[in-house]
């Protein structure tokens, strides 16, 4: 019995204290939701089933009167533009640059702004270790800016070799 308790305590300690992901998802320290609103172009992303095969991907964020955000993700697949409409709201407890996004009923996923241009001209966003996006207010980024974002993603533990660059 004593061995079982020791094994269980060890397992619980490992589970409770282990990092859920091997990446650093600390968000930006200052974040103005109003400035974040508008159209963003996807420069690059990690592969995901919901975006697989898509090109010319954009995300448009619109602040609603109730404080939530309308999310309109769109992209081209097979020559046809498709849209996924969702909603976002501030994470609880409130943390700058941390939102929760839902595209289906009440199932929310984390949305974390890890890096942001001084004038909100680009953003590095994650949702756990499996999802990473580089967003820009313009369809293309200067190479020096892209290099700076890639270096930050690598510093945080993301494998930037897995990025798929948008066309």
UniProtKB/TrEMBL annotation:
<protein>
    <submittedName>
        <fullName>Cell division inhibitor</fullName>
    </submittedName>
</protein>
<feature type="signal peptide">
    <location>
        <begin position="1"/>
        <end position="20"/>
    </location>
</feature>
<feature type="domain" description="Lipocalin/cytosolic fatty-acid binding">
    <location>
        <begin position="31"/>
        <end position="165"/>
    </location>
</feature>
<keyword id="KW-0131">Cell cycle</keyword>
<dbReference type="GO" id="GO:0051301">
    <property type="term" value="P:cell division"/>
</dbReference>
<keyword id="KW-0732">Signal</keyword>
<dbReference type="InterPro" id="IPR022272">
    <property type="entry name" value="Lipocalin_CS"/>
</dbReference>
<dbReference type="Pfam" id="PF08212">
    <property type="entry name" value="Lipocalin_2"/>
</dbReference>
<dbReference type="InterPro" id="IPR022271">
    <property type="entry name" value="Lipocalin_ApoD"/>
</dbReference>
<keyword id="KW-0564">Palmitate</keyword>
<dbReference type="InterPro" id="IPR000566">
    <property type="entry name" value="Lipocln_cytosolic_FA-bd_dom"/>
</dbReference>
<keyword id="KW-0132">Cell division</keyword>
<comment type="similarity">
    <text>Belongs to the calycin superfamily. Lipocalin family.</text>
</comment>
<feature type="lipid moiety-binding region" description="S-diacylglycerol cysteine">
    <location>
        <position position="16"/>
    </location>
</feature>
<feature type="lipid moiety-binding region" description="N-palmitoyl cysteine">
    <location>
        <position position="16"/>
    </location>
</feature>
<dbReference type="InterPro" id="IPR047202">
    <property type="entry name" value="Lipocalin_Blc-like_dom"/>
</dbReference>
<keyword id="KW-0449">Lipoprotein</keyword>
<dbReference type="InterPro" id="IPR012674">
    <property type="entry name" value="Calycin"/>
</dbReference>
<dbReference type="GO" id="GO:0006950">
    <property type="term" value="P:response to stress"/>
</dbReference>
<dbReference type="InterPro" id="IPR002446">
    <property type="entry name" value="Lipocalin_bac"/>
</dbReference>
